[in-house]
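Friendly challenge for the regulars: who can give me the structure tokens for this chain first? No prize, just bragging rights.
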Amino acid sequence: MADEVNPGDLDITDELIAERRAEKPGQTPNDMTPWQRPITAAIDVINLWAGRLICVLMIPLIVAIVFEVFSRNMFAILSQNGMSETAIAWGFGPTLWVYDVSRMLGGVLFMAAAGYALMRGVHIRADFLYRNWSLKTQATVDATLYMAFYIPAMLFFTWVSGEYFLKAFLTGERASDSTWAPLLWPARLAMPVGAFLLLLQGFPELFRALHQMGKDRERIFLRIFPVYLVALAIITLGVFFPDLVPVGDYWEAVFGSGPGIEKPTIGLIMLAVMLFAIFVGFPISFTLIFLGFVFGTWGANFKLATFLMTLQTNSVMLSDQLVAVPLFIFMGIVMEQAGLMERLFQAVQMMMSRTRGALFIAVLFVSTIFAAATGIVGASVTILGIMAARTMNKSGYNVKLAAGTITAGGTLGILIPPSIMLIVMGPVLEVPVTDLFRAAIIPGVMLAGLYLLYALGRCWLDPSMGPILPPDEQPETSRFYILEVILVMASLIFLIWLITKGITDGFGFLLGAIIVPVLWIGVMYAVYTWLDRARPGGFYFSPLWYEFFMGLVPPTVLIAFALGSILAGWATPAEASACGAFGAVLLSMLYRKFTIPGLYDALIKSLEITVLIMFLVAASNFFGAVFSNLGTPKMLTELLLSLDMSPILVLILIMALIFLLGWPLEWVPIVLIIVPILIPTVTSLDLGFESQNDLLVWFAILVAVNLQTAWLSPPVALSAYFLKGVVPEWDLRDIYLGMMQFMVIQVIGLILIFIFPGIALWLPKLVGG
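First reply, four minutes later:
Bragging rights claimed.
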């Protein structure tokens, strides 16, 4: 039953992690081939400790960025109040070192821990076909691809990145895009170290696959293995020392110079092989790296392929925008651990207990708030299912509508800022992440509103779908409950207004943006306490309002300051994410949920998701650079534009393609691989926008809403499986039918944004105005 599920036993940190390894690091089956066991255990333990040590780097990363924000804003505040000399004397002001240190730490986080992530089984694979095979078939395919794709790619990656690091070390190369201009070799060291740890971890993965395929098949592979190692060594020496081992000359003598295929056509072959390879089920990142080397060498030369690989990986490692990814993830996980979501849900449920569909309101209200704290769909759907399903069953709620509400509400995190997907999409489209955040707010709220209208409309037409809670479950309130609701809502709206005014205009005195909202909170608490004691005329505020306040206001204030600082231009996404992460830790302390083991757990989970996303960003950027160099995107754009179709029809076809790909694929490969291929076509369409930035921002929101829709589309929609896992008594067919209702609403929302671009562009134009 749903009430027997322990949330602590569920690994719901991220929806993308489909194959997280169950056994402990270093643990090997007793019947594994004897010589493979110590090798597997030793390499596992090496990468385990690498991950344990690297995840701790997130703490100095947060501290450094928070220090920069505090120092810079204190200098500004003191200077505005005629105390600039005092600010200088106290050492306040913008720093020279935080920008470089923060982006370097962010790069080290994902690169050096890539081997740990593989050991934990968190590198993403498209298992649409893979999951249907027998374990022996899966193992055979894995072993074949590890030997054919993974080990050669990681060997080349290690060698080339080692040369890249060595050059920076020997020449004393410094960063040219910052005032501090630090040495680059300390950060670049993470590239060969991470690649080498990945190469090492490939052998335990290969040995596990050999064990799983059975002894008969394993013997065949082990006979081939020595020959494979010799051939790999010869090829590697031939690639890096062609004068010593002229493999290329031998290849040309035997097979000729090649078929003479044009570069754009090579790119099409590359794209087809990529789609085939990822659908087979091998981890996508490593497939992209291998194909980038192979087709980059075929279409140009190996030297260009290695240059593009090191350049793109280094670019991702030093990206100041992508630093926000691990920090927003950490913020969401810490807030989830603090139990804020459960407390808020119970309060809203009680507050609306006299209303039909009260639990639908509670689910959608809480999911919208939680979406602004974290973009982790798996966590949202699962927690909502645990909290709401039992009460919904007990109260006689319609299962299909209940399942649809939970799954749809849980997917809002993909769209509502600080969406990790939008942070990743910004550099891909080359538009400011702040513009994407501003553009996503109204569509996100609109979709939540459409969900709510639909759920409550169904309850109005058929009250049995969401009956009023039984009297014994309704809270005790005063005789003036409506007045209670009006006063509380008005007080909270005024608090939000004070926070907004403080962020945008301030209140004309030192730290006014913080002091005034805090004073108003004090006034609200004082009035609540006095009325509870005096009860004039029998009026008082029910205890449920205290729970509502404690569940809603602290996380909302934290989110408002984090997002508000981005939208108002006070802070970059990286700075806002660090302050949000720091604030989440403080909240967990105030709620007495903070523990050192809990902090470490949040750090290690954040590291795993960060590696999953960021390593795929680097791999796909390398793949995309090779693909673009071949000229295929230009050819495809010219082909599409030559067709007798209107720009609107072309864009509809693009949206249909993304929707269909959203069934078997997650958002990460679609955003990082498919969207870059489509950008030249989109920017070539004459759709009447004032600027290309407006066009790309609108296109980004369409893609985000489209992919959110794919989360609700059977048969692959993972939201259904998350919900089924915690509510086993709900039939999967009913969950699917409930999701499809909200998928239709989602499509309506997508059409509205398509027809009325102002839904997405009004706020960016207003704020950026």
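The CA atoms of residues 163 and 441 lie 45 Å apart. Confidence is low (pLDDT under 50) at residues 1-19. Your move, everyone else.
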